[in-house]
Amino acid sequence: MKNERGFSLLEIIITISLAGIVLTAMSRTIKTGLEIQGFLADKNAAINWTESILEEFKNKDIDLAGAADQQSSSLVEQLEILEAEALPKDYELTELEITPYQHDGILYSGLYKIKIEVKFNCKNEEKKHELISLLKE
Questions:
Q1: CATH number for the domain including 74?
Q2: I need a labelling partner for 107 at 20 to 30 A (CA). Which of 13, 27, 59, 65 fits?
Q3: pTM score > 0.85 for this model?
């Protein structure tokens, strides 16, 4: 009897089929991971933008009471100019609201609530990031 070496056609077909199944599952996993990475990059950019706006308020000597009364303060206008220069086209500062802080009917003097809202597009879907914080005058 001859010693036959090598693989039979059936073994090769089974191996190729299993490799195809494994590669299909891996490609779907990689695709999902890339989509999630893209979303998180957009979300992080929106978070960084809202936090940079909050830092602008913290670092500058701003009359918060005046800003609470009139929303078209010079800082808001400066932020809109900065936004137009710094942000990609699919990010937008949609709301910047400064109000005196009130809790359980008590108005806290010198404490203001700031609400910053940024909308951004991710995979042709509009998303929103909102940051609410307290600032002391």
A1: 3.30.1300
A2: 59
A3: no
Q: 79: domain range?
A: 9-136
Q: 13 is written with which tokens?
A: 């077909």
> What is the domain count for the chain?
1
**107 domain-assigned:** yes
For the CA atoms of the chain, what is the radius of gyration? Answer: 27
Examine residue 13 and state whether it is found in any structural domain, yes or no: yes
91 alpha carbon, distance to own chain's centre: 10
Q: Which of 52, 43, 134 is nearest to 97 (CA)?
A: 134
Q: What is the pLDDT of residues 77-129, one digit of tens each?
A: 666 666 556 555 566 777 777 888 888 988 888 888 888 888 877 777 788 88
Q: What type of residue sits at position 27?
A: S
